[in-house]
Design a protein that fits this description.
The complex is a heterodimer of chains A (111) and B (111). Chain A is an all-beta fold. Chain A is 0% helix and 53% strand. Chain A has a single domain, classed as Immunoglobulin-like (Sandwich). Chain B has 111 residues and is mostly beta strands. In chain B, strands 2, 4, 5, 9, 10 and 11 form a 6-stranded mixed sheet that branches. In chain B, strands 1-3-8-7-6 form a 5-stranded antiparallel sheet, with no helix packed on it. Chain B is globular, with a radius of gyration of 13 Å. Chain B starts with a strand and ends with a strand. Classes of the chains: A mainly beta (111), B mainly beta (111).
Chain lengths: 111, 111
């Protein structure tokens, strides 16, 4: 069964910490995405990547960075976590012409 | 700007009845549309998709209808079951790598 795996389901971090969220897909998809999901705001795109070492800013990139050193792995980095980054983070991958496959999500709480 | 919206934030239906969830999109260039289901605490799960050269597509107990004239998408669920309770949202692809998601409709199935 093909899937997108996010390394953590729940994370609690302190303000100012550097946080890494990892995502791995086993479908050989070219495209990978990081979204955050907040009540009433829906899914908002943070960053995406359409190839190894390539990245593009989404709608809300501030406070985040990403890394894609291998095709199957896409990491989201919170350089200095803040309480307003408390959210559900969703990773997704896709192949051209098809929709997303999402991971199960990481619920991050910054205290 | 581009947006994908939903007519009803919450829909309550009796078990066994048919459900219809609606979605409006704004970008006439969108060529691909997807419906996702998201259960509590989980990532979105693909339900069904449709391309812009089609008006209707059927899956198992689900049907998606696309009306390009009024930029409207609907998801019909036949014989709604308790396991169908979730948030449903649509997404459209306006010709780029990324998709635009609606904020979602919560479907509640009443016993």
């Amino acid at each position: 069964d093909v899937k997108v795996t996010q390394s953590s389901r729940y994370l609690v971090k302190r303000t100012g910490e550097k946080v890494f969220l990892e995502c791995v897909q086993d479908m050989d998809h070219e495209n990978m995405f990081w979204y955050r999901q907040d009540p009433g705001l829906g899914l908002r795109l943070i960053y995406f990547s359409y190839d190894v070492k390539m990245k593009e800013k989404g709608d809300i990139p501030e406070g985040y960075s990403v890394s894609r050193e291998k095709k199957e792995r896409f990491s989201l980095i919170l350089e200095s976590a803040s309480t307003n980054q408390t959210s559900m983070y969703l990773c997704a991958s896709s192949s051209e012409g098809y929709g997303y496959t999402f991971g199960s999500g990481t619920r991050l709480t910054v205290v | 700007g581009e947006s994908v919206g939903l007519h009803l934030p919450t829909l309550s239906v009796q078990e066994g009845d048919n459900s219809i969830i609606n979605c409006a999109y704004s970008n006439s260039a969108s060529d691909y549309f997807i419906w996702y289901k998201q259960e509590s605490g989980k990532g979105p799960q693909f339900i069904i998709d449709i391309r812009s050269n089609m008006d209707k597509r059927q899956g198992q107990r689900v049907t998606v209808l696309l009306n390009k004239t009024v930029k409207h998408l609907s998801l019909q669920i036949a014989a709604t079951q308790p396991g169908d309770s979730a948030v449903y949202f649509c997404a459209d692809r306006p010709g780029t790598y990324k998709y635009i998601f609606g904020t979602g409709t919560r479907l509640k199935v009443l016993a």
